[in-house]
Amino acid sequence: MSIVKMIELSSQSSESWEDATRQAVERASRSLRNIRSVWVKEFEAAVDANRVTQFRVILKIAFQLDDSESVRSMGNEEILGVE
């Protein structure tokens, strides 16, 4: 049996929404294994002096849990190292 867990992240880039998404996946992959997909839920852009300065995304990353790991021991804080 395989179990997939989803976590929600936010990311930003001065280049594009695609770059913000790519950066989120690359950063998450340092802490997570078996990333299977990403779903971008929301897009936002910061504007300064009538120019877009930051592209922001809120996304969900799905990853498959290892068979040997317990679902109960895998909280978002533990996986990502966020306090």
How would you describe this protein?
By secondary structure, the chain is an alpha+beta fold. It has one domain: Dodecin subunit-like (2-Layer Sandwich). The longest helix has 12 residues, at 17-28. The protein has a three-stranded antiparallel β-sheet, covered by helices on one side. It is elongated. 20% of the residues lie in helices and 46% in strands. This is Dodecin. InterPro entries: Dodecin, Dodecin-like, Dodecin-like_sf.
Query: What value does the Rg take, in angstroms?
Result: 15 Å
User: What would you call the shape?
Assistant: elongated
Strand content: over 45%
Helix content: 10-25%
Count the strands? 3
Mean pLDDT over all positions = 85
CATH class designation: Alpha Beta
What is the N-to-C order of secondary-structure elements (H for helix, E for strand)? EHEEH
Head-to-tail CA distance between termini? 30 Å
Chain oligomer state: single chain
Integer tally of domains: 1
Quick structural gist:
The chain is built from 2 helices and 3 strands, in the order E-H-E-E-H. With 83 residues, the protein is an alpha+beta fold. The protein has a single domain (4-64), classed as 2-Layer Sandwich (Dodecin subunit-like).
List keywords for this structure.
disordered C terminus; alpha+beta; Dodecin; Dodecin subunit-like; Dodecin-like_sf; Dodecin-like; 3-stranded antiparallel beta sheet; 83 residues; 2 helices; elongated
Layout of secondary structure:
Elements: E1 4-13, H1 17-28, E2 35-48, E3 51-64, H2 76-80
Antiparallel strand pairs: 1-3, 2-3
